[in-house]
């Protein structure tokens, strides 16, 4: 055994442990408003942070120290004060913008709360059902994605499909499958006021949240707690010019069957937009932080919630070749990887 390698790996052990627990502390900072209390304030004493945040002094003190230790905050020992750098505030105190990263940390307690059950499922099979993420999980998913959906979906991402934009500007029908808390449907209904927009999701609690999202935006998006199977069984449903499935194809228990149903719901000249995690096809190309994050999402949520309902457990880490092959197998005649820049997502446009 190489002692130097053991020493180097022990550093890695502590680095990962500290990253995990730093993430928990960041979650608290986002959730309690501590980052927002410090944003743009310059250097602050602990007492000033306590006063501005209205939180308990001893908790705030320990949090500030932990955030200094993990280099999220800067500390001036002479003045004994704390600074949230503007660059960090840009990502952590910027709720509802497309550069807010705080929603990622909101997933930490949600994902790890299910870790004991996931570990058990390694022995017993099955999985942890979607519903186990509870209201906290639905709100975390909402916080994770809503800034990008509000600010990028129509104004940036859809602009790479000019034909779809032109069509929806004059009317037409749009469907968001696996709509979760409804921000894509709301962005579509707000951006294309003449289009009819429907969001569907089998999770009733998500649909309840989606209706609140649309009501807050005063838009006409409608929602149904059904799958595509349910929608197809409704004889009054007409086909859609545009269908999206954002961050959810890999969550479908039977992705191939659902993609085939989506194809049936599309007009002959319609477009299907798929947004999936940005990972590579080959495992050896996934040795990086973004892929590690997605394998964690997959193990603790995406894969296990599918296995919990006897699904195939596709998981969040299919790369572009596998995703395009799946869409082709479902019958889509043309599948294109869209040239949209993103650190975390890949975008596909499929046509019948
Ligand atoms: C990770 S969430 C994404 C939600 C939303 N699209 C977003 O980006 O925030 C995955 C969603 O897929 C939904 N889902 C799972 N199986 C589904 C199915 N067969 N049909 C439609 N939606 C499904 C889940 O209920 C969940 O809301």
Structure summary, number of beta strands: 9
What fold name goes in the CATH topology slot of the largest domain? Rossmann fold
Oligomer: single chain
Q: What's the arrangement of strands in the largest beta sheet?
A: 5-4-3-6-7-9-8
Helix content: 40-55%
Net shape: globular
Bound small-molecule species: S-adenosylmethionine
Secondary-structure element order, as H and E? HHHHEEHHHHHEHEHEHEHEHHEE
Indicate the mean pLDDT.
Answer: 97
Structural class, from helix and strand content?
A: alpha/beta
**Kindly, what is the distance between the CA atoms of the first and last residues, rounded to a whole number of angstroms?**
57 Å
What is the CATH first-level class name of the largest domain?
Alpha Beta
> Considering the protein shown, what is the CATH homologous superfamily of the largest domain?
Vaccinia Virus protein VP39
Largest sheet: 7 strands, mixed
- Give the count of helical stretches: 15
Poorly predicted runs are: none
Strand content: 5-15%
How many domains comprise the coordinates?
Answer: 2
CATH architecture call of the largest domain = 3-Layer(aba) Sandwich
Backbone CA Rg: 22 Å
């Amino acid at each position: 055994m190489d002692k130097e390698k053991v020493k180097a790996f022990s550093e890695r052990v502590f680095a990962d442990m500290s990253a995990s627990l730093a993430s928990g502390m960041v979650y608290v900072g986002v959730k309690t408003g501590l980052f927002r209390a410090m944003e743009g304030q310059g250097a602050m004493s602990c007492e000033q942070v306590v006063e501005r945040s209205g939180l308990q002094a001893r908790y705030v003190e320990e949090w500030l120290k932990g955030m200094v230790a993990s280099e999220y905050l800067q500390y001036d020992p002479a003045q004994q004060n704390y600074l949230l750098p503007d660059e960090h505030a840009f990502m952590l105190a910027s709720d509802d913008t497309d550069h807010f990263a705080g929603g990622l940390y909101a997933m930490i307690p949600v994902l790890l709360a299910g870790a004991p059950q996931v570990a058990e499922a390694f022995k017993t099979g099955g999985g942890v059902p979607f519903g186990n993420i509870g209201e906290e999980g639905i709100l975390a998913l909402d916080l994770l994605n809503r800034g990008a959906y509000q600010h990028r979906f129509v104004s940036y991402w859809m602009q790479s499909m000019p034909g779809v934009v032109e069509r929806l500007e004059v009317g037409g029908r749009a469907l968001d499958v696996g709509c979760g808390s409804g921000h894509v449907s709301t962005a579509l209904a707000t951006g294309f006021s003449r289009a009819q927009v429907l969001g569907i999701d089998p999770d009733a609690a998500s649909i309840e949240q989606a209706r609140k999202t649309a009501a807050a935006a005063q838009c006409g998006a409608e929602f149904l707690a059904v799958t595509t199977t349910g929608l197809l069984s409704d004889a009054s449903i007409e086909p859609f010019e545009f269908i999206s499935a954002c961050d959810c194809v890999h969550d479908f228990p039977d992705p191939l069957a659902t993609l085939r149903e989506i194809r049936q719901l599309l007009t002959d000249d319609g477009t299907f937009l798929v947004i999936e995690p940005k990972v590579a096809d080959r495992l050896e190309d996934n040795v990086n932080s973004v892929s590690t994050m997605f394998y964690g999402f997959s193990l603790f949520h995406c894969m296990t919630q599918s296995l919990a309902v006897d699904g195939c457990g596709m998981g969040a880490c299919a790369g572009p070749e596998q995703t395009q092959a799946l869409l082709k197998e479902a019958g889509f005649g043309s599948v294109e990887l869209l040239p949209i820049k993103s650190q975390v997502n890949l975008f596909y446009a499929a046509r019948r």
